[in-house]
Specification:
single chain, Leucine-rich repeat, LRR (right-handed beta-alpha superhelix), two-stranded parallel ribbon, elongated
Length: 434
């Protein structure tokens, strides 16, 4: 029977691995694979595409691992790594790298040479920053760096044009860079449990955003009022004219009884711009300054370039902030299905909430609500509304006939409510676990 070591030596010689690594490195690699039950004699080493080293108590990788030159996915989750093994640098075809639950404090410069990397997970480490060079990973579609120590994001993040998923929850972020608005393909953004109290104006460019998590931050109002205006000087002359013309039409349709002051201001601005466009000239600095001062008089809810970023989102999480009110701009969230607003300081809801016609789930527990607007009963698709731990003494009668909508209302002034709601079939006096 052939000696175990001899069989590996024969394999080394037959495959001419000496062109890649010496025998000692080869032996170290094979011992490593055997030790962690990763050796498969039926599969050539250069054909291995996946390496799973999860929970192996690994602190380093063998130098000969570069022989696995066709690896596409590497997982080193739940180990004791204090730095990312430099051997990973040699995996030119690597598209997925999982490094969660280690002791990492930084990303090495060479990691940005992994040009084919599409997915990077760094959850539950001690990373302080994402280097500016991260923008070099231009094929990245997903980054998860949940539960680290990240304080700020680099401007270079703007180069991640393919990024769709970004999880930065449980960090120490106090702000986002304006360049964040360049992540034009972002669909899911998780920023819970940070120290944010505002968002950059440029975030309105994220037109594909579907899921937005902001719970456990320091927001006091939502949507942020500054979103209602984009900086007009960043728009082309044609964009300004088209946008403002649409505002007039929209305002007239939605406010048939309003006075003409606002429309007059907008039309004034449009006519000024059209004159300059026909002359193929731009307004002078003084003229622009005057026109912008006039535009500031336009009601914020009118400007189409503002809240439009939120129109496609289907889930918004804002639990555990310091919200005292919701802006009437909430009406822009046309496609939201699940809205989480528990553990804030809300005292009322805007009537415009009726515009959330697709809403199915609304969480409002642990606020300071004393009443709900009648318009909430117009949400025909609402299936669950959580109102526990508020100061409600009654509910709008428009909700009574919404039999398909379960209303959880424990820990309000229950003696008053139980009498008032005794014949309501859709009310539940018990706690609700979301």
């Amino acid at each position: 029977m052939e000696n175990f070591d001899n069989s590996f030596y024969r394999l080394y010689k037959e495959n001419d691995f000496k062109n890649f690594i010496d025998y000692n490195q080869f032996k170290e690699l094979t011992d490593f694979l055997v030790k962690y039950d990763l050796w498969d004699e039926r599969k050539p080493l250069t054909k291995i595409t996946t390496l799973d080293l999860t929970e192996k108590n690994i602190q380093k990788l063998p130098t000969g691992i570069s022989l696995l030159c066709n690896l596409e996915s590497v997982s080193v989750i739940d180990n004791q790594l204090t730095e990312i093994p430099i051997e990973i640098k040699s995996f030119e075809h690597l598209s997925e790298l999982y490094l969660s639950n280690n002791l990492l404090t930084e990303l090495p410069a060479w990691i940005f040479e992994l040009k084919n990397l599409e997915k990077l997970t760094l959850d539950n480490n001690q990373i302080i920053e994402l280097p500016a060079e991260i923008g070099a990973l231009e094929n990245l579609e997903s980054i998860s760096a949940y539960n680290n120590q990240i304080i700020e994001l680099p401007a270079g993040i703007k180069n991640l044009k393919k990024i769709k998923f970004l999880n930065l929850s449980n960090n120490k972020l106090i702000s986002l860079p304006p360049e964040f608005g360049e992540l034009e393909n972002l669909e899911s953004l998780f920023l819970a449990n940070n120290a944010l109290n505002s968002l950059p104006q440029e975030i309105i460019k994220l037109k594909k955003l579907l899921s937005f998590s902001l719970q456990n931050n320091q927001f006091k109002s939502f949507p942020p009022e500054e979103f209602a205006f984009v900086e007009l000087e960043k728009l082309s002359l044609k964009e300004k004219i088209i946008g403002l013309e649409e505002i007039v039409a929209s305002y007239s349709e939605n406010n048939p009884n309003a006075d003409n002051t606002t429309k007059s201001i907008i039309n004034f601005f449009i006519n000024k711009l059209k004159r300059h466009e026909s002359e193929s000239t731009l307004p002078t600095a003084e003229q622009e300054q005057f026109m912008y001062s006039q535009v500031q008089k336009i009601p914020m809810a009118l400007f189409k370039y503002g809240i439009g970023v939120f129109e496609n989102m289907n889930e918004i999480r804002l639990e555990n902030n310091q919200l005292t009110h919701l802006s009437s701009h909430i009406c822009k969230f046309k496609n939201v299905l699940r809205l989480f607003l528990s553990n804030n300081q809300l005292t009322e809801l805007p009537a415009e909430i009726k515009s959330l016609t697709n809403l199915k789930y609304l969480s409002l527990s642990n606020n300071l609500l004393t009443f709900l607007p009648q318009e909430i009963g117009e949400l025909e698709n609402l299936e669950t509304i959580i109102l526990n731990n508020n100061q409600l003494q009654s509910l709008p009668k428009t909700l009574k006939n919404r039999i398909s909508c379960k209303i959880y209302i424990e820990h309000n002034p229950n003696n008053i409510l139980k009498e008032y709601l005794k014949d309501w079939e859709n009310v539940v006096f018990e706690d609700f676990d979301a």
